[in-house]
Amino acid sequence: MSFDDELDVERECVDAFLRDGHTVVRGLATAEEVAAVRPAIEAAAAQRTAGVAPLEERDTYGKAFLQAINLWRLDEHVQRFVFGRRFARVAAELLGVDGVRLYHDQALIKEAGGGHTPWHQDQRYWPLDTDRTITMWMPLVDVSAEVGTMTFAAGSHKLGYLGKFGISDESHAAFDALVEEQGLELRTHGAAAAGDATFHAGWTLHRAAANPTGNPRPVMTVIYFADGLRAAEPDHGFRWHDLKTWLPGVQPGELAASPLNPRLYP
Question: Are β-strands 133-139 and 151-153 bridged in parallel, bridged antiparallel, or unpaired?
Answer without folding.
Answer: unpaired
